[in-house]
Amino acid sequence: MAIIKWEPFGEIDRFFNDFPTQNFLKFGRDMAVDLYEDGNNLVAEMNVSGIDPEKIDITVEGNYLRIAGTREEEKEHKDKQFYSKEISRGSFERTLRLPELVHDEKIEAECKDGVLRVIMPKTEGKKKEKIKVFVKK
User: Rounded to 5 degrees, what angle do the CA atoms 69, 26, 92 make?
Assistant: First the structure.
């Protein structure tokens, strides 16, 4: 019988190589938001496929944009045999710090082809209180 040298760091490497990290990484990217400047607007885009626009709550308070909603859980059917279930369901919330002040009364949001776009005209002036934004279909 051969003697095998024990290498504790080899055990740690094996643990992380076997660990299913893809699901955890995907969950973090699932509700990712792109925030960019387009002319005199700040634009936030988020993939919201499978989410009813009526169940998305968008608010702007001071320098913060908050997008929250719910991706409904399907009723499980007894005849389905899942081998993988990776689509995140349930409620979500993302809060982003805006780099500039935005004109609260002129914020628009639209949902098209599973992408939510929040268009926020930039402004200078004092910060406003919390404002609710409605999503156009």
Answer: 15
Single pTM value for the model? 0.66
Helices (H), the chain: 8-18, 21-30
Query: Domains of the chain, with CATH numbers?
Result: 33-72+90-137 (2.60.40.790)
DSSP 3-state assignment of 33? strand
What is the C-alpha separation between 101 and 109, in angstroms, rounded?
17
pLDDT in tens, 39-71: 999 999 999 888 888 889 999 988 899 999 887
**59 close to 131: Cβ distance less than 8 angstroms:** yes
Mean model confidence pLDDT for the chain: 79
DSSP for 68-97, please give it: EEEEPPPPPPTT---S------EEEEEEEE
